[in-house]
Amino acid sequence: MLNFDFHNPTHIAFGKGRVADLAKLVPAEAKVLILVGGASAEKTGTLAEVRTALGGRTHATFSGIEPNPSFETSMKAVEQVRSGGFDFLLAVGGGSVIDAVKFIAAAVHFEGDAWAILEKRGRNIARAVPFGAVLTLPATGSEMNNGGVITHRGKGAKLAFSSVHTYPKFSVLDPTKTYTLPPQQLANGVVDAFVHTVEQYLTYPVNAPVQDRFAEGILQTLIEVGPRLLTAPEPVYDDRANLMWAATMALNGLIGAGVPQDWATHMIGHELTALHGIDHARTLAIVLPALLNERRGPKREKLLQYGERVWGITTGTDDERITAAIERTRDFFERMGIPTRLSGYGLGADTIGTVVAQLEAHGMVQLGEQREITPAVSRRILEAAL
Ligand code: NZQ
Ligand code: ZN
């Protein structure tokens, strides 16, 4: 096992009816800015519940944070926080709203052009306005980690940042808040959480059986629950609860402690979202099967372990078993209604050069746990994903 620090300060309030706990979770004297995405928080009634729970605290609302939140919109919220003197931020939404709030919280105290936060991947964040979250879409893990991803629409760049200062103080996870999600967002959530787990698990062995078996448990849970979410005539509380907790556990630092991590699928996927607006999880479903096949040599031992323990593949030569494990992964994404090839999104070979050029422009030239995914390798992965 590798050396590691593990410290996660986010308080999780999980279960039905927990939005009311905001009354206790938000500091009593706080002047609160609630931040939401488009119309969903209002339409579903969650925003009204949040306002009620805040009771007599002074509060206002900023709405309009887009999916794949933009730097431009985030900076408008920064202005409102500064001019209104808000000292607590409350994200109500999915990963996009929570990510934006992390960035806004840091940018409020940042002197100079706040895009520098993204250019330095958050290393230059010295402090942040305290914030909490009410999660309405289980997928990203943003509710219990310190990372975020922001898109500069003008520059066409989607960059990630993280900082010890950008953990939520708390997150409310009420599985019933997922009942209004359309099927494609549920599918996105399952696939995003699945790929987060794979990024930290399917690398090379370092004798970390606790992390491995936690990861395998998350993957098996998603495989079990995922398809049921799409076919159930009515939402089933336990399935929603298990999806929500699986997605949080997939990216709160626990399974990634002391093990090598890959993240190349995410970095290539971010470029596809920035260039073509494809949903985050869908970009991962395009890249991952092709990447696993390209890296089947360096990932050999873990691919065999994954095939056996997660998919029950125990027969055939090593190569046949690895091929079968990758195919089962692709098939799972497809069963979740998510196409796994660029052609499924109307894209052809002509985009590959641009994606690779953007990876180079963003310094993504030595990706993966072995840092061997050069632009030439990324190109091969994308060609295999056509
Ligand atoms: O904008 P509104 O109207 O709220 O609608 C949203 C949005 O259109 C809707 N939605 C959310 N909760 C709902 C709901 N609709 C009905 N009922 C509800 N309860 O869902 C749509 C998508 O929301 P979004 O927040 O964009 O989705 P997601 O949670 O998948 O977040 C994606 C973003 O997170 C980043 C991605 O790159 C992407 O920008 N990621 C963040 C990570 C992190 N912080 O650790 C890691 C991930 O790998 C990922 O990169
Ligand atoms: Zn992701």
UniProtKB/TrEMBL annotation:
Cofactor: Fe cation
GO cellular component, one term: cytosol
GO MF annotation list: alcohol dehydrogenase (NADP+) activity; butanol dehydrogenase (NAD+) activity; metal ion binding; methylglyoxal reductase (NADPH) (acetol producing) activity
Alphabetical list of SUPFAM superfamilies matching this protein: Dehydroquinate synthase-like
Annotated keywords: Oxidoreductase
Alcohol dehydrogenase iron-type/glycerol dehydrogenase GldA domain boundaries: 9-175
Domain annotation Fe-containing alcohol dehydrogenase-like C-terminal: ranges: 187-358
Family: Belongs to the iron-containing alcohol dehydrogenase family.
Protein name: Iron-containing alcohol dehydrogenase
Origin species: Acidovorax delafieldii 2AN
